[in-house]
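Q: My labmate handed me this sequence with no annotations at all. I'd like to see what the chain might look like in three dimensions before we decide whether it's worth expressing. Could you predict it?
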Amino acid sequence: MSSNIGTTLTQHVLRRQKDHPEATGQLTALLTQMGVAAKLVAAKVRRAGLIEIWGETGEVNVQGETVKKLDRIAQDTIVGVLRRSGTVAAMASEEEHEVIEVPLDFAGDYVVAFDPLDGSSNIDANVSIGTIFSVYKRTHPTEIVRGDFFRKGAEQVAAGYIIYGSSTVLVYTDGSTVDVFTLDPASGEYFLSRPNIRMPETTSVLSINECNEPYWPAWVRPYIDSVKSRNDLDKRRVSSRHIGSLVADFHRNLVYGGIFLYPPDARKGEGKLRLIYECHPLAKIAEVAGGAATDGRRPILDLAAAGLHDRVGLVIGPRAEVELVSTFVEKYS
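A: Here is what I predict for the chain of 333 residues:
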């Protein structure tokens, strides 16, 4: 696989397309167009402080959150690129109340759900943020069906995210491998930099916001204490790292090996993170990379949303560690 390093994103997805003789090329085009949209967003993120697009728009989104200027720019950029791509019939965005439909004359075979700018509360502090996306095959050839978004995560045909950090990194899976591409600013191309990345089996990082402890379910504190007890005076086996940007926290754990938890709590009921826009795509990536993701009890990929903005708890990381969490859930529930 190392010989494939340096392959461009377009070359990579075209090679994968050859493995599927029945393929129309639309998924290949969709993934490359998502890469184009991410380049445009990355350019805005890099210049945000210079062109006065930090701060808020004054709007409040469907989640009840104040919309950042870059949130709106990222949303409009992704919708604009995908709407013209000929690959997408409809889109669902974390920022929108309803499904965004594409005129039937331009509609393609897929629907896409996305979080245009995850971690946007960190924008003004220059913390890594990102775009998360999920792709499903549409179920009806001529009608746009809202229920296409209310499916189990296991039905995703592709999922990925882009991180806008020290470099722009695109991570995606088509269900066979998870591959990492880095944007070369000189050529404007994404080059394969980590083919077939695997989530380390050892948990070296614990990612959780411990300030939420007063609202946690009973199982969380005993589990956290058990993780901390793995450290001793001679050797630190686990470190606590929590950026507050889900996509950045997940990517670090994917690379180094770690578990991320955002359990449901007394304030948020079922949880904070959105099933369609955040949990489904990251769970798909984790599972393909050898990890696992649950809401504490049920695999995330077995869950189907009842509404566009359903929220769930999330436990995601190495498979053995996620399974260990489930034993604490059972014991203390």
